[in-house]
Amino acid sequence: MSDFDVKTFKIPGQHYLDGVLLGGYSPRESIEMVKTFDMFEDDCVVSAYPKSGQTWTLELLYLILHYDNYSENEETDSLLRTPWLELGKIDNARIRELGEVPRPRVFKTHVAAHQLPEQMREKHSKMIHVLRNPKDVAVSYYHFYRMDASLGRFPGTWSQFYEMFMAGNVSHGSWFDHVLQFWREYKDNKDVLFLHYEDMVKDHAGAVRKIANFLGKSLNENVAEEIVRRTSFGSMKQNPATNFSKYEGFDYSVSHFYRKGKVGDWKNYFTVQQNDEFDEVYRAKMADSGLNVDFGE
């Protein structure tokens, strides 16, 4: 590892779109497809910067919308039930497959705010944007970079990854740019719900009710409790449909997809100098945005 030069590290299929680094798993043509994707008024898109609690939110949302027939497809992989719009090469078969997802459809995306489907505003489709404090995001992303083949299984140290993260030289670019673009564009849009990962951890049942209310869905107490049970960290980590254990690209000897799910794990990684530097950048970038996150301090 001592011979590793972070400056020469590249992820498979690395390319740039609008100045943002992306991996081969999200080709340019796939992201362009997202912009023109046909939407329905009852569609819901879950957007997020990577490692922000998006997979958890997708399962919560799917259960709220499809609880009555969930038992029929609970063993179906989550990527089939809640497809990732820009994942992989887009062709006619893929577009047809996305169009045939049972309504109300739930989609995942990591695209930037200006790359979202243009029909979302016209059709008043719903969107949930998940936010997580960037220090925990950075630590979670570091471990994900280490175990995921599509991100090159990063062989470097935490400090080297931290420098990449701060420079925005990771897939999907700068956390600050990604999050602030969504916030400024959609914070006053009634069809968009901003969810904070830390709030979801503190009040899991409250998150279920908040999402249900946003979607105009009424849940009885027994259903709400069952959704909470099915979407607990332990349940999702053990569920083959949600834990990605069948995906050969992940090296679970390095890290699990579901690692800790806690708030404040960054304290075990950030040095005093890194923390001071990060706080200075955070204050400058987030000034006057009105957006606050919980670092678990």
From TrEMBL:
Residue ranges of domain Sulfotransferase in the record: 42-290
UniProt keyword annotations, A-Z: Transferase
InterPro entries: P-loop_NTPase (IPR027417), Sulfotransferase_dom (IPR000863)
Single GO term (MF): sulfotransferase activity
Superkingdom of origin: Eukaryota
Similarity annotation: Belongs to the sulfotransferase 1 family.
Name assigned to this protein: Sulfotransferase 1C4
Organism (species): Lingula anatina
Gene designation per UniProt: LOC106179403
